[in-house]
Amino acid sequence: MNEPLVTGLADALGARHRVVLMPGDRTACAVLVPLLAVDGEASVLFTRRSAALPHHQGQVAFPGGHHHAETDTDLAATALREAHEEIGLPPARVHVLGVLDDIETVATRFVITPFVGVVAPPYDFHPCPREVDAIFSVPLRVLQAPDAEHHEVWDFDGRAVPIDTYPVDGHVIWGATQRITRNLLGVLRTLA
Questions:
Q1: How far apart are CA 64 and CA 75, in angstroms?
Q2: Per-chain mean pLDDT for the chain
Q3: What does the alpha-carbon distance between residue 12 and residue 8 come to, in Å, rounded to a whole number?
Q4: 20: number of Cβ within 10 Å
Q5: pLDDT digits (tens, 9 = 90+) for 4-13
Q6: SS3 136
Q7: What gap in Å lies between CA 95 and CA 116, rounded to an integer?
Q8: Is the four-CA dihedral 182, 187, 191, 192 of positive or negative sign?
Q9: Is the dihedral of CA 90, 94, 96, 101 positive or negative?
């Protein structure tokens, strides 16, 4: 991974004022936003959630899940534990750079804290079939392209809802994952 990019991103994440949401009656969750070098290019790793899951079936996501206060020392530990469970990524191979803005989901009432981390090679991921149908990566340059983000209107039970997406190689990144990705790209823009 490009060292100036890693250092710059860590500095930018540490220096910014981020949005922090208190869970209240919502469920506290954390995700890992994994960055890795694929064919020499800085890329973001995504998963596609299993159709068998109770929430967000088949959607593109980051590895993550519910915070377990009795076993997770903090939300970063939650993100790392979930990445290990979902894709077989050992926590020791992740260098956490910082935290993006908290976001909330409306239908499922989650408050998600996203941690950005650089993954050290080798990349030997193993999806947990109960939770993950696919693992894929997208180069940052693809997500940063001027035409990468699409603005669409989707029908939800007869209601027209504006949705922002990143359609990439047959995958549609939308919802919470799209908002987290947009937040990451916004922080990266400050490095230029």
A1: 10
A2: 90
A3: 6
A4: 10
A5: 899 999 999 9
A6: strand
A7: 9
A8: positive
A9: negative
The total number of residues written for the chain in this structure: 192
Distance between CA atoms of residues 48 and 171, nearest Å: 9
Structure tokens at 141: 């340059």
What are the tens digits of pLDDT across the range 132-153?
A: 888 999 999 999 999 999 988 8
pLDDT reading at 163 higher than 80: yes
Q: What is the DSSP string of 138-183?
A: EEHHHHHSTT--EEEEEEETTEEEEEEEEEETTEEE-HHHHHHHHH
Per DSSP bridges, beta strands 27-38 and 110-119 are: parallel
* Strand, coil or helix: 8: helix
C-alpha distance from residue 112 to each of 21, 89, 102 (Å): 9, 20, 5
User: What would the pLDDT profile of 112-130 be if each residue is shown by its tens digit?
Assistant: 999 999 999 989 999 988 8
